[in-house]
Amino acid sequence: MSNYYKAKAIFVLIGAPNSGKSTIVSFIQSIIGNELCCSISPHDLSGDFSLAELYNKKLCVDADLSNNAMGAAELSLLKKLTSGGNDQMKGNKKFLTPFYFTNECKFLFASNNILSFKTTEDITPILNRLVILPFNHSIPIEEQDPELLDKLLSEKNYCIQMSLEALHRLKDRKFNFNKVVNSNSYISYGYQYQPLINFLNEYCCIGENNEIKSNELYEAFLNYCIETNQEKNLLDLNQVIPYIKKQYNVDSVSNGKYRSLRGIALI
d(Cα 182, Cα 50) in Å, to the nearest integer? Predict the structure, then answer.
């Protein structure tokens, strides 16, 4: 509802079917107004005329996010569109002159499944933007309330008041969102080394004076995968060490007792 667009955030409702995700999306759209909303899948953002649809809109929704993995092109666009106005976007409309604009539209997606990314590039900026809201409880058909949306809308004035109060608190926190869950727990990576890249970006520092035992670094990576529910993405030691040496120009050294990596350390 607000005109603030500096916050770098992408909101995603993830969880079981029949858990209320679509109802929440419809409720938010109704409050904002359909004329200020658009519906574009992140997979379609790279279409010839898709970006122009975001101009002068407050909210872009996809209430049934595709299971298809998002690649480098889609993730790059999402990053630019949620840069807080730091990137100028080019809009195209059929038979009209292209125009440039600062995106002020927020993104709200919903899915029954975890997100799927497939790229060899660093996606830490996307992970930092994700605000995932879990919907884990599926409501049995006999307990579902077909009038729930109307009931929520009957209380919209109170909801708007609460939202404005929350906006002031968010502004005081410099738009740092309190994230309910770790984003990594809700993501599947099509690129097997992506969890390692995320770990290195978040928990390691590169520098010629740094050094760490190879086994110690690998154990920290294993713990990271376990803590973020990524056991399925585990790499073995013989995959991790060569990758780090090649990608980060790190040297392997030995003192006769143990092997270390020189040029990297845990933060």
Answer: 30
- State the CATH number of the domain containing residue 259: 1.10.10.10
Give residue 109's identity as a one-letter amino acid code.
F
Q: Which two tokens stand for residue 213?
A: 């035992």
Question: Which structural domain range is residue 26 located in?
Answer: 10-184
Number of domains in the chain: 2
Residue of 86, 85, 131, 123 lying closest to 107 (CA atoms): 131
Report if residue 4 sits inside a domain. Answer: no
Backbone φ and ψ for 118, nearest 5 degrees, come out as -140, 100
Strand partners, 187: 115
What share of the chain has pLDDT > 90, as a percent? 60
Q: Which residue has the higher pLDDT, 183 or 33?
A: 33
Length of the chain: 267
Q: pTM for this structure?
A: 0.76
In the chain the first and final C-alpha atoms are separated, in Å, by 39
